[in-house]
């Protein structure tokens, strides 16, 4: 630090630099410096056909959580929805509307297409639950997010063919549209550890923090001496 600077100015510089070093853990966390975990994602094209079938590459486990029955392995929910479809619906007596709540918008029946869950109040505390056909275009327009609105990681995977990160990717396994086609960005490999960041990175964080604390104290002292 040049000695020609006034004491108060040098003190302010010391304090500013000190706080910057004290805050280094936030910088390290934001940029994942030294994080040993690794996740690799790639875009997989999903093709929908007018006959109600879908073609997805091997290894794509989930297409979109907004649609039941898109999973590679049928879930209990999917099996129930298919049974309801096959039987033309089901009636409930005396059940509250909360019983019928679900976290998906559509049900996909392979070979038939998309369906929307519908609950009709028939009166006398009776509710009929069915799934009704929805056009494929309407369903896809509703659930597929444009790539321009997707997360940075998803956009990078779509544009470059791959995205690597040290944290699970936000927006993975969700349907997106890109250049007129449908894609799902799926994880193709991962490496995780039970520990945290590398010991050398943690040690450096502590060292920089201690230096930062010393600079703050030194800067405050210079400012007090300059004002005395």
| Residue runs with pLDDT of under 50 for 5 or more positions | none
In percent terms, what proportion of residues is strand?
25-35%
Please work out how many helical segments DSSP would assign. Answer: 6
Query: Which structural class best describes the helix and strand composition?
Result: alpha+beta
The helicity comes to: 25-40%
Shape: elongated
Radius of gyration: 28 Å
Q: Major sheet, described briefly?
A: 6 strands, mixed
Question: What is the H/E string?
Answer: HHEEEHEEEEHEHEEEH
Number of domains: 2
Mean pLDDT figure: 79
Alpha carbon gap, first and last residue: 21 Å
Count the strands?
A: 11
Task: Give a summary of the structure in a few sentences.
The chain is built from 6 helices and 11 strands. By secondary structure, the protein is of the alpha+beta class.
Please render the helix and strand layout as text.
Blueprint: H1 7-22, H2 24-30, E1 38-48, E2 54-55, E3 67-68, H3 76-86, E4 90-93, E5 106-109, E6 113-123, E7 126-134, H4 136-143, E8 145-146, H5 152-160, E9 163-165, E10 175-178, E11 181-191, H6 199-227
Parallel strand pairs: 3-5, 8-10
Antiparallel strand pairs: 1-2, 1-9, 1-11, 4-7, 5-6, 6-7, 10-11
Helix pairs in contact: 1-6
């Amino acid at each position: 630090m040049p000695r020609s600077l006034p004491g108060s100015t040098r003190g302010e510089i010391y304090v500013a630099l000190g706080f910057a070093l004290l805050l280094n853990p936030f910088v390290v966390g934001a940029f994942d410096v030294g994080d040993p975990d690794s996740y690799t994602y790639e875009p997989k094209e999903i093709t929908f056909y007018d006959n109600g079938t879908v073609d997805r590459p091997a290894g794509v486990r989930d297409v979109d959580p907004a649609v039941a029955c898109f999973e590679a392995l049928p879930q209990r929910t999917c099996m129930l929805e298919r049974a309801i479809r096959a039987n033309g619906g089901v009636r409930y007596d005396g059940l509250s509307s909360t019983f019928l709540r679900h976290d998906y918008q559509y049900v996909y029946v392979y070979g038939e297409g998309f369906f929307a869950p519908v609950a009709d109040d028939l009166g006398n505390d009776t509710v009929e639950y069915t799934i009704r056909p929805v056009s494929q275009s309407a369903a896809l327009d509703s659930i597929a997010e444009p790539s321009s609105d997707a997360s940075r990681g998803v956009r990078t995977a779509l544009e470059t063919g791959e995205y690597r990160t040290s944290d699970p990717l936000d927006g993975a396994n969700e349907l997106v549209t890109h250049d007129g086609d449908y894609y799902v960005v799926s994880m193709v490999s991962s490496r995780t550890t039970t520990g945290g960041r590398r010991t050398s990175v943690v040690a450096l964080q502590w060292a920089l923090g201690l230096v930062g604390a010393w600079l703050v104290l030194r800067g405050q002292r210079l400012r007090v001496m300059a004002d005395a």
